[in-house]
Write a structure and sequence with these properties.
The protein is mainly α and 80 residues long. The protein has helices at 9-19, 24-47, 56-66, and strands at residues 73-74, 77-78. Helices cover 57% and strands 5% of the residues. Helix 1 packs across helix 2 (24-47). The model has no long low-confidence stretch (mean pLDDT 80).
Length: 80
């Protein structure tokens, strides 16, 4: 789609430098795609909701319960 817009020279120069674009069009397209990607990531993250994080004491208590179970562990997770 052809569109005529007035983009400040400094903003366009920065966009070309940050994106590595060789043309103005390429810089604008890359900048728009990156902005859209960031917004989609925000939407996905927001859709996950919230979750409780265990305190260090709770994690250590869980580790102590599993000592001697013979199951290999990675961090706080036990491999099944």
């Amino acid at each position: 789609m052809k569109t005529t817009i007035d983009i400040p020279d400094a903003a366009l120069a920065d966009a070309m430098r940050f994106t590595g674009a060789k043309t103005k069009r390429e810089a604008v397209v890359k900048a728009l795609m990156e902005y859209n990607r960031q917004q989609l990531v925000k939407e996905v993250v927001a859709s996950f909701g919230t979750w409780d994080i265990a305190t260090n004491d709770e994690i250590e208590a869980g580790d102590m319960e599993e000592i001697g179970s013979g199951k290999p562990k990675i961090g706080i997770w036990t491999l099944q």
